[in-house]
Request: fold
Amino acid sequence: MDLSVTIAGIRFPTCVMNASGARCVTYEELERLGQSRSGAIVTKSMTREPRQGNPEPRYFSFPGGSLNSMGLPNLGYPAYAHLIPALRRFKKPIVASIAGFQPEDFIEGVRYMNEAKPDLLEINLSCPNIPGKPQIGYDMEASERLLQMIKAHTELPFGVKLPPYFDPVHHEAMAQILGRVGVSFLTAINSIGNALVVDPDHESVVIKPKGGFGGLGGPIIKPVALANVRAFWKLLGDRMPIIGTGGIQTGIDVFEHLLCGATAVQVGTVLVEEDIRVFDRIETELREYLDRKGYRSAIACRGRLKEL
Ligand code: DHB
Reply:
């Protein structure tokens, strides 16, 4: 069973990797991803300055998923640029997730990465958790301007991490932008931003930042994630690899993302909950399920979702 995939000319040993944000902030965490069965090492979204992030509690787990408002705790561009070369020894792709508060930040981040040479950049257009800062991916013009600027400043292949869209008009507009800019892949979806979980016992919100509003992840968001993967696959097909993320807990969830059109997938909430052994479990489940279905590789089922 071949679970390897290629995105922008980079070979991933398996199609299941960590989502940015999940257990990937510190050097120790990135090293553990290197030692794990994760198909890549994806970094936490990085900013110009190191950040502590939002006040705690800022992550809440409940049966259907998770709510987070971490607030971009990370080591900053220079620190990641310094440690990326040491991660090469794990012989799997390194994906640097770049965030910023203004276009100039992203350019600075890209400059650092031009030196550090990760395999891919994932430009984060969708962080929902910074008070007063809207998600760039919901502003089509601002997204295109930013991506064109990034294109002009790097030779590294880069993709985008998108927020969930809920209307075909928005999938079409973003697909056109990605085609015009010529990005190398897209990752869909980031958490569903600004959701609210209520604790009825305490008559309270469950996380401190932003009055309790935060990004929703985990099983509860899988249908929204699948819809976004499918919508972009139908618009872009095999012209642009899609990394599906959202609601993956099992090998069968991975299979569903592949059927919708994903080339690879990322896991966030389940990685936070179960730690890096999750990669062994999901890989085994995926192998068994594909085998039972008669598929010889992960890529063989890509996009093959039947319509009625
Ligand atoms: C954070 C959350 C996100 O969904 C994201 O894309 C980037 C950062 C955070 O709160 O740290």
Notes: The two ends are 29 Å apart (CA to CA). Residues 5-53+71-191+218-301 form a domain with the TIM Barrel fold (CATH 3.20.20.70).
